[in-house]
Amino acid sequence: MLRTSSGSAGSDRRRNGCHGSGRGAWLGAGKMAVTGWLESLRTAEKTALLQDGRRKVHYLFPDGKEMAEEYDEKSGELLVRKWRVKSALGALGQWQIEVGEPALPGAGSLGPEFIKENNANPIFMRKDTKMNFQWRIRNLPYPKDVYSVCVDHKERCIVVRTTNKKYYKKFSIPDLDRHQLPLDESSLSFAHANCTLIISYQKPKEILVAEAELQKELKKVKTAHSSDGDWTSNIKSLSRKGRHES
After folding, report:
1. Residue 109 falls inside a structural domain
2. What predicted TM-score, i.e. pTM, was given to this entire model?
3. Contacts by 16-20 with C-beta closer than 8 Å and gap 24+?
């Protein structure tokens, strides 16, 4: 995997003045938060399905919020995570993707000429590995030394900017927020190849432990098999079927 050393990335961050305080407030809270988030996953109503080589898990939380995850059946790597919440009137909203390929804006309703015209726009997505949170920003043609990637501790986010001021983005790591873990600058690195900026953040041990515990928990969930299209649209019938069979 393409990766720069932490030292190299660090020198870029210092040169561009990406600072921020606030890290200490999160120290010591991580263990309790990890336990709390795991407990919320354990108590959520879960439905599992094997489909197209993926293990798909739907979570329904007591507050009505939904989370759907998809794992590679063989490697166990997380491929998709998305969230859906109800509106104030009780209507289901659109799925918001946290991990995985972004949905093409207006796909299905726009002509190919529109899609072609926007192919050059930067495309941001998160695609994790076993050991790293990882983001890819496609369609960034500038050489590697143009980019600065750093941690803003005050806003608890990662900041990406270019010295030519052609691109700027900041984004959080929801996993660290859910577990109340601090961002560590030394865990951050980036590489650039084929017009794609690849940003990696090494998962802290607390995250690795929590992910392993979750996989143990998911093995207890009865899994259905299906080859039918969009599984999230049929989740209620799958849930009823699972309860009936159990």
Report:
1. no
2. 0.78
3. 16/148, 16/150, 16/161, 16/163, 18/148, 18/150, 18/151, 18/152, 18/159, 19/152, 19/153, 20/151, 20/152, 20/153, 20/154, 20/155
Residue 200 lies in a domain: yes
pLDDT in tens, 223-232: 888 755 565 6
Q: What does the pLDDT average to over 109-115?
A: 48
Domain total of the chain: 1
Beta strands per DSSP E along the chain: 45-51, 54-60, 66-72, 78-84, 96-99, 123-126, 132-138, 147-152, 157-162, 168-171, 188-193, 196-202, 223-225
C-alpha 21/C-alpha 156 separation (Å) is 9
Measured distance CA(143)–CA(217) in Å, rounded: 44
Within a domain: 199:
yes
A 10 A CB-CB count for 127 gives 17
As given in the structure block, the two tokens for residue 63 are 């507050």
- State residue 31's pLDDT score: 58
- 57-66 long-range CB contacts below 8 Å, 24 or more apart? 57/218, 57/221, 58/231, 58/232, 58/235, 58/238, 58/239, 60/239
pLDDT tops 80 at residue 39:
yes
pLDDT tens, position by position, 127-164: 999 999 999 999 999 999 999 999 999 999 999 999 99
Residue 199 confidence (pLDDT)? 99
The CATH number of whichever domain residue 186 belongs to comes to 2.60.40.790
Q: Which domain holds residue 159?
A: 6-104+121-245
112 domain residue, yes or no? no
Quick check: 79 and 126 in contact, CB under 8 A?
Answer: no
